[in-house]
Amino acid sequence: MENNKKQLRIALRNCGFINPENIEDYIAHSGYAALASVLETNDPQATIDVIKKSGLRGRGGGGFPTGLKWEIASKNHADQKYVVCNADEGDPGAFMDRSILEGDPHSILEAMAINGFCIGASKGLIYIRAEYPLAIERLLIAIKQAEEAGLLGRNIFGLGFNFDIELRYGAGAFVCGEETALIHSMEGDRGEPTFKPPFPAQSGYLGKPTNVNNVETFANIPVIILKGWEWFASIGTEKSKGTKVFALAGKIDNVGLIEVPMGITLREVIYEIGGGIKDDRKFKAVQTGGPSGGCLTEKFLDTPIDYDNLIDAGSMMGSGGMIVMDEDDCMVSVAKFYLDFTVEESCGKCSPCRIGNKRLYEILDKITEGKGTMEDLDHLKNLSKVIKDTALCGLGQTSPNPVLSTIENFWGEYVYHVVDKKCPAGQCKALKSYIINPDLCIGCTACARACPVGAIKGEKKMPHEINQANCIKCGACVEKCKFNAISIK
Amino acid sequence: MEKIKSLADLKKKREELQSSLQLREQGENNENLIRVKVAMATCGIASGAKQVMEIIMNEAKKRNIPVEVTQTGCMSYCYAEPTVEVTKPGQEPVVFGYVTPLKAEELVEKYLAGNEMLPGVIPINYEKVEL
Amino acid sequence: MDKIKLTIDHKEVSAPKGTTILRAAQSIGIDIPTLCHFELNGLNIHNKPGGCRICVVEVEGRRNLAPACVTECTEGMVVKTNSIRVLNSRRTVLELILSDHPADCLVCAKSGHCELQNLAIRFGVREIPFQGEQSSYKMETSPSIVRDMNKCVMCRRCETMCNDFQTVGALNAIERGFPAVVSTAFNQKLSYSPCTFCGQCVAVCPVGALVEMDHTARIIRAIADEKKTVVVQVAPAVRVALGEEFGMKPGTIVTGKLTAALKALGFNYVFDTDWSADLTIMEEGTELIDRLTRHLKGDKDVKLPLLTSCCPAWVNFFEYHFPELKDIPSTAKSPQQMFGAIAKSYFADKIGIKREDMIVVSVMPCLAKKYECAREEFKVNGNPDVDYSISTRELAALIKQANIDFNSLQDAPFDSPLGESTGAAVIFGTTGGVIEAAVRTAYEVITKKPLPRIDFTELRGLEGVRSATIDVDGLKLNIGIAHGLSNARRLLNDIKEGKSQFHAIEVMACPGGCIDGGGQPLHHGNSEIIKARWEAIYEADRNMPLRKSHENPSIQTIYKEFLGEPCSHKSHELLHTHYFDKAKVIEVKLD
After folding, report:
1. Is C369 tagged catalytic?
2. How many domains does chain C have?
3. ipTM metric
């Protein structure tokens, strides 16, 4: 197996090394030293400047400069401010936040306390999905241990800084990863995004200035403090610094979590870290950015991965899902799969997302059912553009990305579905036809007996035939045929 | 743990912990102690890590092998769960993947007790920030 | 104030800081279409979810389109409201909304008043390119309101009214994605929810998702039934709003045409709820004086402040949300119910018919009145005091159906004896009016001196909570007034905490009182209409020869002939009621 140590672990530095339920393990690995140094320096703005200069950007998907976000929150004055950790990891197949919370919970607590000191907040809240019971358990243990050790609570290190952390549980709504929706959910309201401005940094939780950062973003903070911004900024590309954790999945040998420096190419990730495509099939596309991302083709294999390049390529960083597809994957079905998710997870507040995504899904479904028309493809293109242009929040604005990027990169495949009524990948059931080769069929009747709808007719010892109108494409005949006489076209 | 009341406290505590860690690593404290870490995130547990951890402890006890078994977070080799890292005194850690209950017994019998390598070793393909 | 300069459609605009693109555009005659956006200026009602996305505009330098209703202008902003990108997006969004909306405009109650229909007309939509699943929810009827959520466009206006303005909390969005819809908790019927039937959700719904329970057919049948004597009463606020349905200027007082129209419709007797409003003042005013006198004598058990009880939505509200305070409101029935009780006793006797042969119809600016007249305690052996209550809108529909050219009608007077009234009664139609009418009478009764002035302007206005101290010959009477149940809630919380300094509080559920009741002609967010009605109410008061309830000769007569004196035994029997603890009877019904 190739291994040139392409990975660099910053956010995942302690995962798989320390006992997450033991604060001493964390302290032995320089835990809480960053908080100590920040409190000792006693200059919030200096710390914010370090984060700003490090070039760290939000790892939850938006890529907003973290230091700037802190600075805005620090400059809005209020009697109470809040630090919120967004642990509402909702992308299908993404689990980097869970891994960090389960493997290194103290790093998040420490980073939140640093954030609290910088913006003048004495309260931290972790919004975590209730479907992460182990992460919750370990966070609760960690909070208790940190409080007992005096690393959270009142007068930390005797330096007069108070900081408490509580958990808030989410019910697993994808849209609650959007910060305004997350805040509404924490307040006990319907998890719906609201128009920004006001930004949470101005008016967030309970109307108070609130800084919301994602788990992975926080996990980077103590390292930046301890190693210095120069070190961090030396990793990555011009506009995207540091590393990114990806959940590598799909048709690849080594699925799992990886943490790579920004600027690495997809080729390196897929072939060198991921071990290449399973069963030596041909690479077709890689989907990044979760349901809001897009599918990238071979031509992007050598593009350095960073926030801006991915957007230019028609996808996005997202929270770090990366799904590799091979020639057996139908791109229309892939788009449909993601739309199915967005339709389910839309909050329903704005019309383009509530109704538009539903209609997008319905058109895609029509196409995979072999009932699509060229006019449908026009609607698909226009509707995608309009949803992107008019939806209220990030979820809606990015939901057509899977459609747009597959249309852009796999237009021919769409046309093939619509005009030729065929699915090149052989994935769309309705577009498959099972054909008996009369030269190979010996008329054993095994297929006819297996067919659940009686679509196969023929005399004994004579070649059989499948009535295409009745065939439900279940494939039972293929399994029964011992003479390889039945093929799928 | 007693309260850490000042920066000096934290520093002292860290040094204490690090030196005891070092002692163990250099094997001066117990030159035969083998340290085993079992990846116990949700994914690991779902693939049977709890059972694997028990087996390793029981089997080592049966054979009187001095072993310290601890849980840790996700080692991120999803394709090879459950994963177990074994550090023998004075040696580099070795990560084993696909550690089924059967393989866990084998691991104790062959690698912990003997020194026989087993298949399924996962090469470390990353660098880690050192703090 | 800081001014911002920007360009909209190549025109320079200057607007105060904080102005939205929508308002800035309006100021230079650019009318950006909206759907969910709803404001009642001056009444503190704002619904700006930025959800429908009909008002999107192009802002130079911005990645996506901006909703004009919530995006604030910034210095140097360049906005395009009619570029091809905007027009295409707007039309597509409209087509999407229409693709999940039943196309049954011909038989929809909101047809002709529907804001979605207006948009479809404005955009010239001739076909809907998107076919697919349509929402299908169960239609629900209640005594006052019909919910057909298949028509809901998720504008959330009803939620704003129900939750922010009324703090009733009956309606909220449920589900997510395509099935998201506004509903009650556990999707229960409105009757099992904390709904007060104020009808403000209906008043603001841009489409036909929330409409009133239509009783016009029953009225036509009742009039056609020769065995029945059909008596109609008209609430004060109807006369300052009905004209709008016939193209008249908001605030036109149409009392004379209204009575003429009711006579033309075939009602046997056309009476006035103003008459029973005067009666209400006699009863409620006496109750107030009685409680005050006892209070001044040091009676610790006396309940103060006295709360008015003419607004049925308000009654429902305290029964559900503040049952522990149910002994405080006046026991006087509302004017509608007082009228019914007198019509079916005193008046039925007078004309020599049995109560069963009389049908009492009320024309109300209100939807809660439909619920009120169906309350069990307002029935005698199952026969209700008021049989049917119809809204101002339903009356307009009846007039149109009956080929009556409203505009050319000759004014006609109310019938006697339940048609005579004073200016004190007509001001019941707006917030502060009931208490002003009560003060006019209480003053003269307590001091036995004529009022030095009739207009208590300190009690008037459209602020949500108002207060005034009236000097009743040395006695300082502290009056509180609230309209909107959120404002009432504030005053009730003060009472609960023992902090209230008021002797009497008037509450009306709707914005501005009955003039903007749930049954009034739709104002579509134009608060100027409400202000015009408000002014008309006081104009109607000024036009009356008598302006104090106790001077109403017909009222004086009924006390002489029938009731004895205010708060007499007979009055209590006919004109007073009691309240229930509704918090306990709300239950979840699974069907």
Report:
1. yes
2. 3
3. 0.93
